[in-house]
């Protein structure tokens, strides 16, 4: 009879699977508690979950913090974790998503510096809110810095502006 309760063909998860799922939620909750405030603000979280995270941050006692993180995991059982995990991956600097995003921005910066107006027009087609004047100015400054063998200040500013556009 007990084998029938844990039979995966019935759609009932095993105890081990429930424990793994619970541990995954606790780990995700702990990451949310430990992340910097500006990163946490990028998440669209339920108010009760946010207050639980702030409470866990406030706690100094290790056991109390552990219990609060378990509570956070329990709160997350009812949420759609796909959106939270996707946001975590974007913020995680070691993630593949971040590296691809970073590489895409570097490619755009190089295109803008090397191709000039045609690349600016292509970028504006993708990001209509982009400031054409600012892009041209940064592109010209970056080319001057390359010619004069100066530090790439404008190139960094251009990358920062592209990052703001993409976010």
Compose a concise summary of this entry.
The protein is mainly alpha-helical. The chain has 10 helices and no strands. The chain has helices at 2-5, 15-34, 37-40, 47-58, 62-76, 81-91, 96-115, 117-126, 132-147, 153-166.
CATH C-level class of the largest domain: Mainly Alpha
**Main beta sheet, described?**
none
CATH third-level topology of the largest domain: Diphtheria Toxin Repressor, domain 2
What is the total tally of β strands? 0
CATH superfamily of the largest domain: PSPTO4464-like domains
**Structural class, from secondary structure content?**
mainly alpha
Q: How much helix, percentage-wise, in residues? A: over 70%
Order of helices and strands: HHHHHHHHHH
Q: Termini, distance in Å?
A: 54 Å
Overall mean pLDDT: 85
**CATH architectural name of the largest domain:** Orthogonal Bundle
Unreliable parts: none
What radius of gyration results from the CA coordinates? 23 Å
Multimerization status: single chain
Count the helices. How many? 10
Number of domains: 2
Any idea what the shape is? elongated
Strand residues, percent: under 5%
